[in-house]
Structures are given as C-alpha cells and as structure tokens.
Give the backbone structure.
Amino acid sequence: MYPEQSIHNQAGAGLPVALFVITVLALLVIGMAQLQQSSSNAVSLQIQSQRAFFSAESGAQVAVADVLYGGRSCPASWVLNFTEASLSSCSAQLVCSAQDASGGTGGSGGDTLYTITSRGVCGSGADAAERVLEVRVR
C-alpha cells in the first residue's frame, strides 16, 4: 500500500528536537524551584527581623516605664524574655544610663536624661535576627 522509499528518506529530526525541548523545560523548572526557595528564605528572614524589631521596641517601652514610673535606677542592665506566642524565642537586652540634663542654666536643676538601649534578638543560628533601638527620655 505504501511505498517503501518513504521509510528510507526520513531524516529523524524529531527525537533531537524533543530532547532539546525537554532539557530546556527541565532547566526552567529547576531555575524556578531555586528562585522559589531563595524567595522563601528571604521572607523567613524578613519575618525574624520584624520580630526582633518588635521585641526591641517592646523592651524599650518596658524600660521607659520601669525607669520613669517603676523606680528602677540607672545605670542598670537587664534582660526581658518574652513568653507571648508572637515573640516566643525572642528577648530584649536593656541597658540604661543617666546623665544630668539641667545644663547649669538655672533651670529646675534636677532634670535627668535617660538613655535606654534595647537590643532585640530572635531566633538562633542562621535564622537569628537582631535589632537595636536607642531611646532618650527626660
């Protein structure tokens, strides 16, 4: 029915083209998977960084309340370990210093300037993040 000559005249370019297309698609899939993985890692580190910032900010707020209203004296240093779920495995290392801010200009004479440094740390190892805030209050 079919002539035998058509079988012998075929060049067979379909197989190399198919292998090339499969290879290119495989490389694209691998590249996209690596991009997704690195993006996921970046988001995870960004979340840890935000948690460290919030722990430092919370620590600074607690330190201001302790120094101004709670009777804590400066210079001092202490550590807050957070137990809330949103800041679990986070801590704030606080350092307080005081200096006379009256300036000798005949003011009230008892003004004290408090400098509070709060260092928020979240996570450990490669996933650790740290943020430092400094607050000055009178």
Remarks:
- The CA atoms of residues 2 and 8 lie 12 Å apart.
